[in-house]
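Weekly structure sync - notes
Attendees: PM, LS, DV (DV joined late)
Agenda: review two folding runs queued last week.

Item 1: First target. Sequence and structure tokens pasted below for the record.
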Amino acid sequence: MLDDLKLIHERDAQDALGVAEKQYQQLSHDYEVELTGFADVSNVVLAGMGGSALPGVFLRAWPGTKVPFEIVRDYNLPEYVDQRTLFISSSYSGNTEETLAALSEAESRGAQIVVLSAGGKLAEYAKTKKYPLFLIPGGIQPRMSSFYFLTAFIQILEPLGLIAVGKQAELKAAAEWLKDQTVSWKVDVAIADNPAKQLALELFGKSIVVYSGPKLFPAANKWKICMNENAKNIAWTNQYSEFNHNEFVGWTSHPTQKPYAVVEIRSNLEHPRIQKRFEVSERLLSGMRPAPEVVEPKGETLLQQLLWASNYGDYVSLYVALLNGLNPTPVELVEKLKLLLDQ
């Protein structure tokens, strides 16, 4: 059915595939927010959940920060947060209760505050308090706006001298490169010539496990989230070499029948020992787990490979959703949870 365009458009009622196709444009978005009054920043704390925290994982791999950086997925902040903390409050909906609670605590500690949101309570509060507000374009799901968030983070950190100079330019340059890379994944490209559709067919009907090395882990994490929310498919992720110290052994026994599909994102930019671990682990686990579907990211730089692997995962998860007979966009269970928590 992945070549049946009429059926695809019926199931993909909010055009999630169209959003995936245009994601490269998010990398060139200019927020035009002026940052003044920030000084003596000794650490950065990003408070966010789900898709609003996801792009923060990218920062650890690319470009990296000059000061300690932590993502907080909680109501409370680490004890060290104080007046020298750059606190980034990130919520696409603007109504994420954990993020709002963390913001209140950051204020009480005197942290230096920046806000990212597409609206809701958080955006209104930022306007009232005159906090710098990076207004994320709305109308799509948080998990599909990752590059908007990443672009905003870079436009915060580079002017404040917390990352190397030139990263905004590198991000914009990567946008057109990514556009060219995704041509064969589009919905109007037949299965025979479409690697994203081919991989989706291999993963369909199974629980999906995504592994990577540390450099590509942000992309593996995005695969996991998009498989959960786009395809409504159970999935998890881990990275080498941590995998070899525990989960590796778990594959050798129960359950004896393993209804899983394994995806390994193997980058030539990972440490040579990480690359060897992939190969040796595959040999040792032969016959004990499904043979991995190996994804080798395209690109000469770490940024290019991260963007390529992330966008590829978006397409694959959307095609798995369609094979599951589902509309990829809604996350109705999350909305029900929020309503019940407020009762």
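Item 2: Second target, run right after the first with the same settings.
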Amino acid sequence: MNKIPIGISSCLIGENVRFDGGHKRDSYIMGTLAEFFDFHPFCPEVAIGLGIPRPSIHLVKVDNAIRCMGVKNPDLDVTEALQNYAHTVSPLQKNLCGYIVKKDSPSCGMERVKVFSNGLPSKEGVGLYTELLLKNNPLLPVEEEGRLGDPGLRENFIQRVYVLHRFKNLLAEGLSAKELMRFHARHKLIIMSHGDYRELGQLLASLTKENLPDIAEQYINQLMPLLKSVATRGSHVNVLQHIQGYLKKELESDDKAELCEIIERYRSGEIPLIVPITLLKHHFRKAPDQYIEESYYMSPYPQEMRLTNQL
């Protein structure tokens, strides 16, 4: 299996690049995710020459602008150096399908990074490197390692990684109208669990051989932001009931009642998503349906990740 290329803050994979010469190796990242992801490490602070160990830096508001400066030595200002590095490595990140950054870091934090004003901190900042990473790669799924501890955020991030990876493979294998339509059909139930899929369907309705590249670009530019919203139990229930409709002629009354009960128990929070999905897979093994079989909804990523066990 070819692993998916993912950018990552170097300290999270165990590299001793922290300001104190240490690391922040993450056991989930290096245990579970490393089986499926090929990590490409970046450490902007080391890359701009701050050294290991190095003076600590933080974000400071100066004349309504955010600067990255030394904690003990305010004459140390690495704002432009971090920004220039982010632009320099941007071409190297075009093939990535996701990125995991270090929380709270003045260079790599994604949100709620401390910004000091008149000596007082407020958690309103974004690391200067990550700020440009997000700007230069607006479709790229980016997440902090701390937020990966949340089951919903973790599943959402990994799902988006796999969707973007499949789309990039679609482009690499040769884009065609038929394959773009098939891509949409296979992801339609996933899209339904995140929001309204009709706008994407309307976009593809205008697809021609001549406008294929433009429509494909518009499609992915709309799809990836839509998927950023974390799917709720209610939206999953809507999809599960929609899938159940494909079995209405195949199931006996007691099987239908059992399936309805399982979906309701999922809605109420008694059981995780994996339970109704497993039951649906069981019924579709007995009564196969090509559309459901090709859909990614019930198998959006390797089952070994066990992401739906906690949703």
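Discussion on item 2: The first strand starts at residue 4 and ends at 9.
Action: LS to circulate a short write-up before next sync.
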